[in-house]
């Protein structure tokens, strides 16, 4: 069946199940998360189930190249292009692995949705410039290797409409967790932390979601520096648990201007990447804070900035009963304990309690958004991003599937 005929058929019968793969490589830069998703319905009536998922670490050489491209480093065109193509191939291989895990094949797929590492996030400026994202991971390579249409670069259409391009997870949070009675804060702690408050009887067109600040990004960078590259993250929060939070240093770190901004707002490595980590070590040196005490303090920075944003922006707007936690930070026991301490009265539940594993969730997001986009439905939430209107997200790389008509 011709691709456009297939799209028309699914639009006519949206409740027919579709198989979609989501691929995610985020700001932590540690690898690729992949999920095979069965989905049906559209918009508020969408349903999605994870069939299989996996996490695939980057080869060390690819990870090193990616980190050499992050700000404040400068990069040349050839090095950027080589990384762009190599990551595209790695993304395709991750999709093949997750299909193999499920005993499925690419000719069963409707679409692949992908999000590669963001090299630079341009924030909206006072001079009127629009937001923008520079992501790597060539979607055309994925489409060619899999023979499947690929939707990528999902943020930039929202930016072109005056939005910040993030967080885009709000639509999927709403689909999965809205409730008539229970108020939930869906909290992702990836490289950056973001939250979607879902008050009882929330409406999609009135959501407010935002980035609370750094998630694992600063913690990971501190661990990597103090271990001279031997460790890239704080496994289970053990280092933070063995250290002590330095309150004066924490107070200084919380003075970052991002924490004073009012939602909708978004951030990334341009504010909490290498330059910020350099500042952390400079201030830590003045206070004599090092080792596990520094890990504990930057872990408290993540937890404190989340809690502060709840108190200032989230809880005054309506009733929240529980936090639904996902992302790599959900595996950091010390971070979870700090959140429980800083937000007493809110029950913390893991995303996996609702049938979707922590590891699969971010890839699920891009699978659902790609499916919504290929069917021609908008999936940004203007009240979240600040966009002037709803937009269909992403760019389509068709690959050989368009001509061969393999997907039916």
Give short descriptive properties of this protein.
Nucleotidyltransferase, domain 5, 6-stranded mixed β-sheet, 5-stranded mixed β-sheet, disordered C terminus
Report on this structure.
- With about 400 residues, the chain is of the alpha/beta class.
- The chain has 2 domains: about 5-170 and about 360-395, 2-Layer Sandwich (Nucleotidyltransferase, domain 5), CATH 3.30.420.40; about 185-320, Nucleotidyltransferase, domain 5.
- The chain is about 40% helix and about 20% strand.
- The protein has 16 helices and 13 strands.
- It has helices spanning about 5-10, 60-70, 75-100, 140-145, 155-160, 170-175, 215-225, 240, 245-255, 270, 275-285, 290-315, 335-340, 360-375, 380-385, 400-405, and strands at about 20-25, 30-40, 45-55, 110-115, 120, 130-135, 150, 185-190, 190-200, 210-215, 320-325, 345-350, 395.
- The strands form 3 sheets. Strands 3-2-1-4-7-13 form a 6-stranded mixed beta sheet.
- Strand 2 and strand 3 (about 45-55) form a beta hairpin.
- Helix 3 packs parallel to helix 4 (about 140-145), helix 9 (about 245-255) packs antiparallel against helix 11 and helix 9 (about 245-255) packs across helix 12 (about 290-315).
- Pfam families: AnmK.
- Belongs to the anhydro-N-acetylmuramic acid kinase family.
């Amino acid at each position: 069946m011709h691709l456009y005929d297939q799209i028309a058929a699914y639009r006519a019968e949206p409740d027919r199940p579709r198989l979609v793969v989501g691929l995610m490589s985020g700001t932590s830069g540690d690898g690729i998360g992949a999920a095979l998703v069965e989905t049906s319905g559209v918009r508020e009536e969408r349903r999605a189930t994870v069939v299989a998922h996996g996490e695939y670490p980057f080869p060390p050489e690819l990870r090193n190249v990616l980190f050499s491209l992050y700000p404040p480093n400068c990069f040349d065109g050839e090095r950027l292009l080589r990384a762009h193509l190599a990551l595209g191939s790695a993304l395709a291989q991750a999709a093949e692995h997750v299909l193999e895990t499920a005993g499925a094949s690419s000719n069963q797929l409707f679409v692949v949705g992908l999000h590669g590492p963001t090299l630079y996030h341009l924030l909206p400026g006072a001079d009127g410039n629009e937001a923008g994202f520079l992501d790597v991971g060539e979607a055309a390579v994925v489409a060619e290797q899999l023979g499947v249409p690929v939707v990528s670069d999902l943020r930039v259409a929202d930016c072109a409409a005056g939005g910040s391009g993030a967080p885009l997870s709000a639509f999927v949070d709403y689909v999965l967790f809205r409730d008539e009675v229970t108020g939930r804060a869906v909290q992702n702690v990836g490289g950056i932390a973001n939250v979607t408050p879902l008050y009882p009887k929330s409406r999609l067109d009135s959501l407010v979601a935002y980035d609370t600040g750094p998630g694992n990004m600063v913690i990971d960078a501190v661990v990597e520096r103090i271990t001279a590259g031997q460790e890239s993250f704080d496994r289970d929060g053990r280092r933070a648990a063995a250290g002590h939070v330095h309150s004066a240093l924490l107070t200084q770190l919380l003075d970052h201007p991002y924490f004073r901004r009012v939602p909708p707002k978004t951030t990334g490595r341009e504010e909490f990447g290498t330059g910020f980590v350099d500042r952390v070590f400079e201030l830590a040196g003045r206070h004599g804070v090092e080792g596990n005490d520094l890990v504990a303090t930057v872990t408290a920075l993540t937890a404190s900035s989340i809690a502060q944003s709840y108190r200032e922006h989230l809880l005054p707007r309506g009733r929240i009963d529980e936090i639904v936690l996902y992302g790599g930070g959900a595996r950091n026991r010390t971070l979870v304990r700090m959140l429980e301490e800083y937000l007493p009265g809110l029950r913390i539940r893991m995303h996996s309690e609702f049938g979707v594993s922590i590891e699969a969730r971010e890839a699920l997001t891009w699978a659902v958004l790609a499916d919504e986009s290929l069917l021609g439905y908008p999936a940004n939430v203007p009240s979240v991003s600040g966009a002037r209107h709803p937009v269909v997200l992403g760019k389509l790389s068709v690959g050989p599937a368009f001509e061969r008509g393999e997907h039916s």
